[in-house]
Amino acid sequence: MTDSHDRTDAAQGIEGVLLANRDRIVRFLEVRGAGDGAEDLFQDLWMRLTDRRMGPIADPLPYVMRAANNLMLDRYRSARQRELRDKAWGEASATQSPSSECALISREQLALVESAIAATGERPARIFRRFRVEGIHQRDIASEMGVSLSTVEADLRKVYAKLAEIRRQFDAG
């Protein structure tokens, strides 16, 4: 059995556990403080667990629930760190301009990201922007666009896969 085959089997196993227990995991995230953002966190959990190389997992549901709990802890810590950082940096740091080189690199990377998002198609790109840029909840996007929630999730996964590709290129470069 090859590494590629192991990765596929493990990812499909985790995907099956996530799909079969979706409502339970979303409720768990809601109870842990995610509220309306539970659907969005579920999507992030999906991406984290299916985008990594892993071997077989003996007891996958507790593994997924532990990962969901860790995701919530990461969110809390991240929010707390962001508050502390923003407070420490104050207004002075926000007025500093990046170097010309950094600005050029950032513009080039942004163009690559925008191209990758556009390459996924009009609907996935629009859903991604509504969700990630405008902060609209997935259910609201599904209702607004007249598609199912699973279609919204599938389109987001398509965009996230493209962005993961781009990120790997940035990390390698």
From TrEMBL:
Coiled-coil segments, which residues? none
InterPro entries, per database record: RNA_pol_sigma-70-like, RNA_pol_sigma-70_dom, RNA_pol_sigma70_r2, RNA_pol_sigma_r2, RNA_pol_sigma_r3/r4-like, WH-like_DNA-bd_sf
Look up the signal peptide feature and give its range: none
Q: What residues does the RNA polymerase sigma-70 region domain cover?
A: 25-80
Question: By what name is this protein known?
Answer: RNA polymerase sigma-70 factor (ECF subfamily)
Q: Which Pfam families match?
A: Sigma70_r2
Keyword match Transcription? yes
**A GO biological-process term:** DNA-templated transcription initiation
Give the family, as the similarity comment puts it: Belongs to the sigma-70 factor family. ECF subfamily.
Q: Tell me the organism.
A: Sphingopyxis italica
Q: Give this protein's Gene Ontology molecular function annotations.
A: sigma factor activity
Recite the UniProt keywords alphabetically: Sigma factor, Transcription, Transcription regulation
